[in-house]
Here is the input.
Amino acid sequence: MGVEGCAKIIKYLLFVFNLLFFISGCGILALGITLNVNNGGFATLLPSVPFLNAANLCIAVGVIVMVVGFVGCCGAIKENGCMLLIFFFLLLLIFVLEIVAGILGFVYQSQVSDYVESDLITGLQKYDTEKGLQSAWDRLQSDLQCCGVDGAADWAMNSSFPATQFPDSCCREYAIDCGKTVGYTGAWKDGCAEILLTYLEDNIYYVGAVCIAIGIFELFGMIFACVLHRSIKEGEYA
Here is the structure.
């Protein structure tokens, strides 16, 4: 005997909730694969800050969300108490992990600037040896309109660039081989470390807002799962 009344409404609400959850997981997974295929993201420059590796993070989150959404859909539509319990605990686990990640991010936020500068210097020195780093540096400098770690002179740390030379992506007016001819006056004046930190700080608030919204969404999902599971059990013993 299926659930009736308000429990039936909860059943379909939970199904729709999980269907949307599953679709969003597909979207996150597709985004992660796209980012992984298109090498050269900012995270390539910052191996010491692994949570910035958006591609791998999106792939992992996408798969988890899809699995949770699928279990929830099946549990709701089939009125399967066991699957609803699995869905509840999976959602609870994700919720707890989000809280832990938020706490760790808050605790270690003061160390991010040190990691960023250190990784940028290392990446600058390896610019001409790794294609991924080269692409990442060029994108960073052209997108954020910056040059070097603290300025164009930093490129002297790379033996491939004699004094006053730097990659073409540093040039304020781009042209092929402009980095060999325009000198420091033709390069972006600001270093990339400070601009990148500001960029990350500005965007972390959006990430936090999205995580809070997802957390509220997950709380409703857990409540719906509990209500539906209780109704199913009451129906079995009625």
Notes: The chain has a mean pLDDT of 82. Residues 192-237 form the longest helix (46 residues). The CA atoms of residues 17 and 32 lie 23 Å apart. DSSP finds six helices and no strands in the chain.
